[in-house]
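Q: Given only this backbone (317 positions), what sequence would you predict?
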């Protein structure tokens, strides 16, 4: 292959890499579902005991139906029940298919779905899934239902579904819900997961929530160690991403004006749009806005700045 052809292939490969990074670290416009959740009241501020009620007309009634009457098309809930029964009756449970059925049912009628699930088979398994699906688009309504149904069997699994949904946007709210979980295994999972999300923002408050729990000291120590191990690994990964995005942005036409690692990292973390009109990436966003301030600070221990080039070092400074 000729030298000119090799250069052309190398240039094309580099542009493809830039396009990948630009797409990977571009902050997309929020979807309609996510936008609907933004600005909602944090679940931690909800007043427990609010009963979500539905009229008989809304819920429908099959008790008064004429058994001899010709059956019409299945309702969304009847169709969901048939599919769930078939899935649960199979030799091997298709988790993906079950997830899709539950999500569809919850989107159609979450109250009726919950009324069935608290009495049906496999409650612990199904409750966790359906409450998460409900909370993903209506966290306030799901929280209100849970607050009004504290005597529900397998209640801890329902709370786990809620906390799994809200912990990234509202880790403090998730930790508040963890306090009412009595099952030690479920509480351990929730504190470990939701607690780490809080650890990303405020480590002191995460430790406080863990130490105020009724988990035994050995359980608390195990969660702390898991947090620290994950934190160290994440710091390295974040530093590599910061370095890669900075290099890609420079190649795409962006000029940094950084005095030190802190200034450079803050620019990449906040993000920017390529303003060079001659660049094929003009108007593209580069940045990693999902990093918390603490995560950015931890990543800086693995970064070095020299001549406006941010490089990664596997060993912390």
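A: Predicted residues:
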């Amino acid at each position: 292959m000729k030298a000119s052809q090799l250069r052309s292939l190398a240039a094309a490969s580099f542009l493809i890499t830039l396009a990948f990074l630009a797409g990977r670290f571009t902050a997309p416009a929020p979807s309609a579902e996510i936008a609907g959740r933004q600005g909602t009241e944090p679940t931690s501020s909800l007043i427990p005991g609010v009963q979500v009620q539905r009229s008989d007309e809304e819920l429908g009634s099959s008790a008064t139906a004429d058994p001899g009457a010709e059956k019409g098309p299945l309702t969304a809930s009847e169709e969901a029940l048939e599919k769930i029964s078939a899935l649960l009756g199979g030799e091997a449970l298709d988790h993906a298919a079950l997830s899709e059925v539950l999500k569809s049912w919850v989107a159609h009628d979450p109250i009726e779905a919950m009324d069935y699930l608290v009495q049906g088979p496999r409650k612990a398994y199904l409750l966790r899934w359906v409450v998460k699906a409900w909370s993903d688009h209506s966290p306030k309504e799901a929280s209100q239902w849970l607050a009004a149904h504290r005597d529900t069997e397998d209640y801890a699994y329902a709370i786990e579904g809620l906390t799994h949904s809200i912990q990234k946007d509202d880790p403090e709210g998730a930790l508040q819900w963890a306090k009412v979980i009595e099952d030690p295994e479920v509480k351990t999972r929730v504190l470990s997961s939701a607690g780490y999300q809080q650890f990303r923002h405020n480590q002191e408050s995460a430790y406080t929530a863990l130490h105020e729990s009724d988990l035994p000291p050995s359980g608390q120590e195990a969660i702390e160690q898991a947090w620290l191990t994950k934190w160290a690994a994440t710091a390295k990964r974040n530093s590599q991403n910061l370095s890669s995005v900075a290099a890609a942005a420079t190649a795409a036409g962006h000029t940094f004006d950084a005095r030190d690692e802190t200034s450079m990292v803050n620019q990449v973390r906040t993000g920017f749009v390529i303003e060079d009109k001659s660049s094929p990436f003009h108007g593209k966003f580069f940045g990693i806005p999902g990093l918390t301030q603490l995560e950015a600070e931890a990543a800086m221990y693995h970064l070095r700045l020299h001549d406006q080039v941010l490089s990664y070092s596997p060993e912390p400074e």
